[in-house]
Amino acid sequence: MGNSSTKLAEKCSLLAKSEVPVVASSFKLVSKNSERIKEDDLMKFWGSQMDPRLAQYITNFLFGPLGSRSPVVEFQRFAELYVFCVRGTIDERINVLLCSLGQQPESESTEIAYPLIKEYVEAVVSSYMRAIRLEGGPQYKSWESRGFRIVKDCIQKLAESLAYDVVQQGTQKVTRADAERWLHMNPTFLKMLEHVFSHLYHYRNVKNASEADGNARKSIIPQEALQSMLPYCEGLQYVPDYPAFTDLSQMLFINSNLPGTLQNKWRFLFSSQIHGESFSTLLGRIMDQGPTVVIVEDANGYIFGGYATDSWALSPNYVGNENSFLFTLRPKMRCFPSTGYNDHYQYLNLHQQTMPNGLGMGGQHNYWGMWLDSEYGLGECSESCTTYKGYFQLSATKKFNIRNVEVWGVGDKPVKEDEAEDEKSGVRSILDGNADSKAMLKMSGREQYSDGYREEPKD
Known about the structure:
The chain is of the alpha+beta class. 37% of the residues lie in helices and 21% in strands.
């Protein structure tokens, strides 16, 4: 670290030793090695990296609100924005929010209109989704390369799902106490805020000398500094343009509600668009796969589903535990955690005369939170469900027709004892492959041979 960075760091005791080079380098680049940053220079440097609304909020914090705005900002305030947003206390983050909205952070009696909070949250969420796209990390690429996209409407719904409970029921005003309670209960938003500002302060916009015009620019953002909340997508390597009916904002919403140990990877198991509309095929692909996420789209375009904690297995009994939940993605994004009132988390049965035949989550026989009948294509969601807190009917109508079903294994696939023994003894050949891989190869018109992959001969 040069002498100029050391001098800058001496002006701000807030920064940890590891943060000094990050913040000081960013300040030097934007200020063009001076002691102050101009608003126009900052927006030229950061503008492409975030939602325009967040840019306005940042300038309110750094330069002051319209009417009393300073033409420049010094290192201390620039460093405060980083520290408060990346690792600040709840109180410090609320101060940033209030200053960004043009409010006085010192006043305990401050009340903010809910639409302003909602727009601030949407600006952060939109900037987060932009950041992970620009960074192009392995998690993002594993989905984007298979046909999944970021849809503006879904970003808005994700933001609304994070912001809606900041207000007390029956009011549209947010007090400081409301904001404190909300942030304590909202780790997903705090992680997004942290990521966005880590992205901004790590961003380096430099000339790419290899480009012919000499003026092209590229982003240099160290991947190790930024962790995506998206899981890694596994199992779609042979489906280059997967027919996705969900977007990345929706997948992120589901993933953020899973237990932390299962958030790193999703394994593709079943899609009605790829494997066909068959209940027996669905069962064959999802049983004994460990925890799963089931996503359903009904004929009216409502999208919903559930997280099942246990491997699916045929049984007359309910299985699962209190970590399971139901969710809706469209028309709203909501998660419904366990109430603890009963343990009717997941049910699967087939070919029974006296028991329901199908896949169910929550509620009870004939009054399901979510039910997929063994007669494929039919489903049901009751108006109420005592198994899951805050539940409301997930589908457009109580009885519905299925348009799409998708199932993902989350985390690593559980290893059966006999498979573990075979693996230890080296029984399986590399050429044995994996049933999923072979099926996907078949779909793409290729087969696996001892000397590699070949196109399947045409008839």
